[in-house]
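Bug: token stream looks shifted between consecutive jobs. Job 1:
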Amino acid sequence: MASDSAVQSSKYFRAYAERGWIERQWIRFSHWTVGLYCRFCCRLRIEGEEHIPAQGGVLLASNHISMLDALLIPYVVMRLKGMQIVWSPAKEELFRIPVLRQILLSWGSFPVRRGRNDLRTMRRIVSLMSTGKMMLFPEGTRSHDGQLQAGNRMVGRFIYRAQPVVVPTVVSGTNHTFPQGAWLPRVGVPIRVRFGPPVDLKRYYDQPDSKQTSEAIIQDVMQSIAALQKRSASHPAADSNR
């Protein structure tokens, strides 16, 4: 298991193909294990995979309703696009669960202390976002009622500096599968992951690097997530796996 100091090492931030044979096999095995649950214990439906670019800087900006979201979205991306690392800054609390910690770390998550301005972590987020795939929850925390909350302006600044392709993403059903406070996931609950068309943010990149620009960017991103969420609610997931 990687220690906290090891996670901060540059050796941790390597692409899937650059990792050792044992580590790659663990990623494959853990992905297969999560896949067993998705296939046989919940009714997973995936939509909009054509909106995820194969290469380049990509940000999957998603709503956040359950701890399961941090596993589900990377699982889906690897299932659709092949084995790879989906980077994801995540709150420290998720890494206190031993098995979950090991999976998250191997899949590209790294702990972030909320409420602290860690310049090294911020630079790393921008660097990873500009070259690879990253998952972020712009709300910053889980929604207790499933309603989309306001986005964090700092995410808008990350986007401004990294200029990735921003793919709005909506997860539904995970709050019923793995509700807050639960120790084990429920079985048989339908789950859906839906990806939308990339958000057009190019008009902002020639503007000054300011609070106003970051706020405008994150507002556009949140509006795209909200619109996708509304469409998802009007078309409930079918009771079959993709």
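Job 2, same session, no restart:
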Amino acid sequence: MTTPLARYGSAVYGVAIYASTQSGGRKMNQQLRVLFDFVSMPDSSLDEFAGGTVTGMTANPAYPTPPVALPTVELQQQAFNAAVIAAANGGTTLTAAKNNARAELVDSLRQNASYVQIKCNNNLQTLLSSGYQAASTNHTQTPLTQPVIGDLINGNTGELVARVKAVTNARAYEARFALIGAGGTPGPWQSGGVFTNSRAVVITGLTPGATYVVEVRAIGGSNGYSDWSNAVSRMSM
């Protein structure tokens, strides 16, 4: 399964982090908001991001009826990808066709992003499961430091457990993993989930006897997401 959330380390798609502030002695809860910066992503990143939202929202009970059906988004993504390849050969007509395909795809992603913002019920993990990311509402203006995986151990059968040093201002931790194939080459990144306990980042559904590489990043702070951590590999038992 392709990581909607994790596969794209540079991509920032998402939703706002839930925060509570004190104002005049009254507690005020801030609403999660989806990050719309996918509209300005490079073509290659937009293509991958769109695929991530399709993966994240397909069969996701939190998002049963998106305004733009996921098969439609997938077809638009495929058309955009083909147009990008064609436009690489140059020519005004092909470039215009690529731009039109991009605009159509972005419009669908916008509609579904607004839907995700409403249907996530102000739950960060639910929102992130859609493949979109969070717009940070943290006002401390303190960037998150890069997490460090101190240890990667075996849990139950088919599980790896990452133990990460806590990051200041982090509200949660997102994991990603990839199967290491022949020749030691990692496969595509997959989402390992979102966790609130940095000492128990449990990645499940792994194949016993296969070796995986794992990375973690923090969620929160003024920049929304930290850089991905050091990569650590281990065989699943």
